[in-house]
Task: inverse folding
């Protein structure tokens, strides 16, 4: 029998053994070694016959060239290998079905392309090979801060330093976008030597209204690959730095942020920049002090802002030349929106031939926030919104409408016809309503003619009855609670609202089958509390899963604690499992699939009270450069409900056992407490989770 599969993982290899050339392997794995691209090339040059190759967790630095000679490859795994580029040679692997490059900071092709998978990468390179390359020099500058801080004044001063400030600058309602051009020297990111090009840099300045009513919607436009300016009024000293920095870090994936101190009337304020930098090292890069009235400090601020814009990773990245031509054609189009058929015709005129390539470009422009095209929405897929502010302005008109505010967020299609009566909106009422729903700002009632905007609901709960004798309480505790989570939960679960009306600004009662759930947000305490009553355990599990998927935030939103408990009056004692944040060294964190849990979780059980136990930190290996692949964990049956509940918090759809193998080193869930499903004695017998 000939050897077909070989696993050399975790052996600290710097080179692959020479005898590999004598084998006719189909599947080779050399995960978690010390292999470089040169070492792989020298060992596997000319090697044919492989169908599966996995070299993850090696310091390759680039995709080894020999891989592109293995024409029979179907699956290639290169996660966490310090790879930054996927070359056009990938087109030579005509039988490739799967390419895993997770954990690498890919710069070329653009991340927006890479995130769509192998098919998008191949289409990107096919188009570049066909029509040539051009370089993008366009960026997004986003200005945020409290109302009246001077955001609009700063935006105008950036575009024109001679702009005369108005005595009472009107506050931004929603979002304004202002164009700004300046001559720039940008690098060509994909050339082997340093290559610079001089051209005008196109910057879109997004001025965000600071009023709280708008903040829940801003999340859809706080994109990565942008530079952020947090404006604070040094006279008022009312800027919530923690909120804004958390929000930007959560939604922008570490985009650079500058604090701009608007020293009105030359009044200065000390900002503890070192403390803020220590807390937000991924995004906060500095502070600028200026006086917009006298222009003091403006030149230095503009120079720093330009510098940060030019350093954004996507500046200078090559794109198919046809992409840039279409982008310029759309920018010059004076219309707010066009039909999909018109967009496809524009692409055809500028060198596109395949429909999927045209849609890939609209997807790319959508991800960058340049235009809006919701390809998977049955209504919005037929419209390409060229001016995103056209859509946001229409949405904010509804939220700001006095009659709808007085009606506590309740409105009808007749109200929308009144609000969107202008010619630029009148024929797009259906699409704009779907846009509001896409932004999770409203939902329809059963009649299909009436709608509710949850952020405008009454703060007072309606009267309702609640049976607390058999309830289970689930508490989500956040280090940072973004605004709008409860609004999104209400919209996502509107079909479950009890009696169709048990909903208010900070809470909702949901009902399904034999269970009820009360969800209440306490923003000041950064907490969402859920009380569930259910006659059957399965009903409780379904209710919990629905709620937990809506209450979670992305993993970089800081730690979240979920607490499940049964009240002390219950005859069933409660069990608690507390998952300490794993204190794993940085290299172990990077190798989420390669760690060993060396200590079991102990369950301390005491009747009618909470008992605490800890899943202690992994012990650090003696040799920090060696990582032993951990076995698949085996979970004892009393733990299954807890593990599945934890998985539901992340929204992960993998098999739960696979998720459990990976989750603890990367997910920021700190603690979880669940009710017991079996009785136990007074002595407090311990249960163990064996890994």
Result:
């Amino acid at each position: 029998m000939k050897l077909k599969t070989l696993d050399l993982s975790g052996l600290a290899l710097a080179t692959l053994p020479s005898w590999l050339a004598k084998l006719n392997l189909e599947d080779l794995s050399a995960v978690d070694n010390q292999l470089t691209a040169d070492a792989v090339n020298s060992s596997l040059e000319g090697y044919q016959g492989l169908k599966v190759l996995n070299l993850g967790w090696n310091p390759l630095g680039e995709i080894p060239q020999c891989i592109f000679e293995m024409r029979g490859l179907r699956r290639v795994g290169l996660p966490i290998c310090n790879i930054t580029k996927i070359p056009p040679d990938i087109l030579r692997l005509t039988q490739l079905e799967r390419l895993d490059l997770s954990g690498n900071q890919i710069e070329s092709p653009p991340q927006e392309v890479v995130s769509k998978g192998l098919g998008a990468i191949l289409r990107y390179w096919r188009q570049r090979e066909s029509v040539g390359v051009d370089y993008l020099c366009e960026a997004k500058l986003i200005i945020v801060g409290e109302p009246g801080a001077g955001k609009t004044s700063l935006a105008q001063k950036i575009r024109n330093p001679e702009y005369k400030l108005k005595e009472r600058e009107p506050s931004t309602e929603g979002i304004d976008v202002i164009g700004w051009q300046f001559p720039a020297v940008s690098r060509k990111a994909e050339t082997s030597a340093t290559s610079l090009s001089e051209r005008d840099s196109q910057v879109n300045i997004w001025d965000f209204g600071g009023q709280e009513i708008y903040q829940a919607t801003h999340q859809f436009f706080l994109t990565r690959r942008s530079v952020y300016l947090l404006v604070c009024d040094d006279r008022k000293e009312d800027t919530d730095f923690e909120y804004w920095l958390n929000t930007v870090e959560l939604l922008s994936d570490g985009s650079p942020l500058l604090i701009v101190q608007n020293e009105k009337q030359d009044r200065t304020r000390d900002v503890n920049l070192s403390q803020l930098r220590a807390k937000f090292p991924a995004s906060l890069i500095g502070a600028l002090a200026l006086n917009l009235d006298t222009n003091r400090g403006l030149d230095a601020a503009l120079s720093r802002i330009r510098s940060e814009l030019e350093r954004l990773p996507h500046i200078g990245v090559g794109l198919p030349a046809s992409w840039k031509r279409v982008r310029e054609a759309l920018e010059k189009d004076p219309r707010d929106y066009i039909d999909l058929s018109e967009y496809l015709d524009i692409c055809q005129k500028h060198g596109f031939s395949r429909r999927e390539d045209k849609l890939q470009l609209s997807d790319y422009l959508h991800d960058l926030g340049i235009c809006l095209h919701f390809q998977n929405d049955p209504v919005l897929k037929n419209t390409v919104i060229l001016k995103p502010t056209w859509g946001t302005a229409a949405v904010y008109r509804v939220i700001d409408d006095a009659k709808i505010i007085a009606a506590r967020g309740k409105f009808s299609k007749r109200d929308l016809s009144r609000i969107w009566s202008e010619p630029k909106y009148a024929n797009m009422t259906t699409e704009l309503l779907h846009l509001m729903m896409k932004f999770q700002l409203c939902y329809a009632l059963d009649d299909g003619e009436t709608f509710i905007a949850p952020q405008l609901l009454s703060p007072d709960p309606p009267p309702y009855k609640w049976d607390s004798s058999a309830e289970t309480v689930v508490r989500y505790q956040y280090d940072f609670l973004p605004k709008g989570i409860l609004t999104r939960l209400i919209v996502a679960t509107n079909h479950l609202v009890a009696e169709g009306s048990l909903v208010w600004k900070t809470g909702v009662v949901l009902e399904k089958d034999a269970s009820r759930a009360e969800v209440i947000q306490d923003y000041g305490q950064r907490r969402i509390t859920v009380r569930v009553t259910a006659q059957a355990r399965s009903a409780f599990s379904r209710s919990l899963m629905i709620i937990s998927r809506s209450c979670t935030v992305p993993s970089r939103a800081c730690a979240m604690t979920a607490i499940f408990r049964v009240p002390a009056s219950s005859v069933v004692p409660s069990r608690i499992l507390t998952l300490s944040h794993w204190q794993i060294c940085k290299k172990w964190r990077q190798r989420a699939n390669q760690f060993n849990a060396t200590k079991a979780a102990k369950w301390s059980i005491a009747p009618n009270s909470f008992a605490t136990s800890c899943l202690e930190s992994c012990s650090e290996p003696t040799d920090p450069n060696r990582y032993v692949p951990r076995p698949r964990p085996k979970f004892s049956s009393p733990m299954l409900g807890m593990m599945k509940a934890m998985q539901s918090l992340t929204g992960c759809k993998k098999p739960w056992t696979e998720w459990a193998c990976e989750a603890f080193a990367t997910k920021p869930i700190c603690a979880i407490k669940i009710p017991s499903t079996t009785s136990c004695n007074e002595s407090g017998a311990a249960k163990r989770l064996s890994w």
